[in-house]
């Protein structure tokens, strides 16, 4: 690839603020965040990824861990390697003409993932509005602080074009934690952006405006938080239900989001 054909690494894009969960394999966390950035268009097609040393430093992982994540992205066709040059992002979307034949194995898998994703949203419609209700009734100062921190990190990541995925989920997890019910927290964790099992689904749904989407999600989160902070349980419940319903509508319109 000629240098003039390369797409520049997006200005301000940073993974440094991504907190690692000890319960997760580090390579999975690296993979999921790079995957999300690629399929959402945050890292454009043709971009050369930073060196392995640089990326390992961004994620605070070893090079073997990073390579495992990169290998997975390479197998899935999201990046490719050029000897002596590095790793490049390639088109993550599927040509619409390629999904017309339901007999194709990849297309059938994609449709199954759509069903799984929508089933997950349906379960969230049952669980999360009630979680918001209970959080408004039971939240303490530490719970509110945790929610505010997640909202602030989301805002900071949005302003710097960093990855939003983790901070989005962290807000929902903080609400679940505020219920004081560990089973609700466990249920929500089981639904946390199963990115690694939804590759083809996300490829089908990448045609959307991530920054517009992110701003909308930001406002919806802020509304939910205001009601929880005020102890307005019924309003918090309704706001959360609207948020999940909007997520489902955005998904059906090709605009996936939490």
Automatic annotation (TrEMBL):
Annotated SUPFAM superfamilies: GntR ligand-binding domain-like (SSF48008), Winged helix' DNA-binding domain (SSF46785)
MF terms (GO), sorted A to Z: DNA binding; DNA-binding transcription factor activity
Keyword DNA repair set for record: no
InterPro entries: GntR_C, TF_FadR/GntR_C, Tscrpt_reg_HTH_GntR, WH-like_DNA-bd_sf, WH_DNA-bd_sf
Keyword Transcription regulation among record annotations: yes
Recorded superkingdom: Bacteria
PROSITE patterns membership: HTH_GNTR (PS50949)
Stretches assigned to the HTH gntR-type domain: 24-92
Pfam families noted in UniProt: FCD, GntR
Record's protein name: FadR family transcriptional regulator
Source organism (scientific name): Pacificispira spongiicola
Organismal lineage: Bacteria, Pseudomonadati, Pseudomonadota, Alphaproteobacteria, Rhodospirillales
